[in-house]
């Protein structure tokens, strides 16, 4: 049997974006002795939360999946976006967070997150002074630098993300229809390309939309660097990593002012749109970005995967 001090980590969060990227960057940097929890199957399946897990060890998940039977589990809640999804889909998330996540977090007494925006929302949601919410922050790959070679091509805008409702992508596609010389490159999961092609065709802009998938950080950095601006029209975000990656390459971001997490990241390194769904306002922002391209200074500090890992190590150490 492993010693009780050993931390068991759910390593099933693995990929190139979002929480998957977070896990990929953080886990190799941890100095806390740990081993994989060794689970297979879909970590987001409805019954996964009921699985038998070791009770003699502290568990850690780089994402929001929690286990009802865990004696203590440190969870990373990147955001609470799922609690704001439309009905009836929201019902399952409300049940999961109330019956699984909140009890696990309260039992452990501490939870991790990635931004001050998310920290404030989680504090309000927990409504429990006995639970400490720790902003471990987030990092940015060294590939995203202002001196990278820009990708070639006519002036274009960059979008990185997916087509979920809170990403609010349709307003940018609609705005593109009103700016005849505007071009858009979209990095999307390959499974969403067919839907994106249909959305572009419906608006008559297929010839001006280029879809990307499966590129590495170095290639993505070049696409950011070559863009006149990155568009991030999200109405909800826990952090907004594409916004950070973009400004790190010196490329400004067009975003909705009301998305607090993105505004926190971008600051004055972009252009804030006042109305999330105003197509003409977005079209105006796009025209402005293309007519007067500018470079922005990347943040001097504060986004370091090593620092994030150190904060997680320290929190795990307090719990062991």
Describe the structure.
This protein is α/β, with parallel strands linked by helices and 320 residues long. The protein has two domains: 7-139 and 304-319, Rossmann fold, CATH 3.40.50.2000; 157-291, Rossmann fold (3-Layer(aba) Sandwich), CATH 3.40.50.2000. It contains ten helices and twelve strands. It has a six-stranded parallel sheet, with helices on both faces. α4 (169-176) crosses α9 (279-291).
Helix content: 25-40%
Radius of gyration: 20 Å
Mean pLDDT: 93
Low-confidence stretches: none
* CATH homologous superfamily grouping of the largest domain: Glycogen Phosphorylase B
CATH topology grouping of the largest domain: Rossmann fold
**Number of helical runs?**
10
Strand order of the largest sheet: 9-8-7-10-11-12
The assigned structural class equals alpha/beta
**What is the element string, with H for helices and E for strands?**
EHEEEHEHEEHEHEHEHEHEHH
GO molecular function, one term: glycosyltransferase activity
Domain Glycosyl transferase family: 144-293
GO biological process, one term: lipopolysaccharide biosynthetic process
Organism: Microbacterium barkeri
Primary descriptors:
single chain, 320 residues, alpha/beta, Rossmann fold, 2 domains, 4-stranded parallel sheet, glycosyltransferase activity, Glyco_trans_1
Topology, element by element:
Blueprint: E1 7-9, H1 18-26, E2 34-36, E3 59-61, E4 73-75, H2 90-108, E5 110-113, H3 116-126, E6 132-135, E7 157-160, H4 169-176, E8 184-187, H5 193-202, E9 209-212, H6 217-226, E10 229-232, H7 241-248, E11 253-256, H8 260-266, E12 270-273, H9 279-291, H10 305-319
Parallel strand pairs: 1-2, 1-3, 3-4, 5-6, 7-8, 7-10, 8-9, 10-11, 11-12
């Amino acid at each position: 049997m492993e010693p009780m001090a050993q931390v068991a980590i759910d390593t099933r969060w693995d990929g190139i974006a979002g929480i998957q990227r977070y896990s990929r960057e953080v886990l190799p940097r941890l100095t806390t002795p740990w081993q994989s929890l060794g689970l297979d199957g879909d970590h987001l399946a409805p019954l996964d939360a009921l699985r038998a897990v070791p009770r003699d060890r502290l568990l850690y998940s780089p994402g929001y999946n929690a286990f009802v039977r865990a004696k203590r589990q440190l969870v990373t809640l990147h955001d609470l976006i799922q609690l704001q999804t439309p009905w009836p889909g929201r019902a399952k998330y409300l049940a999961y967070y109330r019956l699984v996540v909140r009890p696990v977090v309260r039992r452990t007494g501490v939870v991790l997150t990635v931004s001050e925006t998310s920290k404030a929302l989680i504090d309000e949601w927990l409504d429990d002074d006995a639970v400490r919410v720790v902003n471990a922050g987030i990092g940015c790959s060294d590939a995203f630098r202002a001196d990278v070679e820009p990708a070639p091509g006519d002036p274009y805008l960059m979008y990185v993300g997916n087509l979920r409702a809170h990403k609010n992508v349709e307003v940018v596609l609609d705005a593109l229809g009103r700016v005849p010389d505007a071009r858009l490159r979209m990095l999307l999961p390959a499974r969403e390309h067919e839907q994106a092609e249909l959305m572009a065709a419906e608006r008559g802009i297929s010839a001006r939309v280029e879809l990307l998938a499966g590129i590495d950080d170095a290639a993505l950095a070049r696409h950011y660097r070559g863009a006149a601006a990155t568009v991030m029209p999200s109405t909800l975000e826990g952090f907004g990593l594409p916004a950070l990656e973009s400004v790190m390459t010196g490329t400004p971001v067009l975003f909705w002012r009301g998305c607090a997490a993105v505004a926190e990241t971008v600051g004055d390194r972009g252009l804030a749109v006042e109305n999330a769904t105003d197509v003409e306002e977005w079209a105006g922002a796009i025209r402005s970005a293309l007519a007067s391209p500018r470079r922005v200074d990347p943040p001097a500090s504060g986004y370091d995967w090593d620092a994030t890992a150190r904060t997680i190590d320290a929190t795990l150490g307090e719990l062991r």
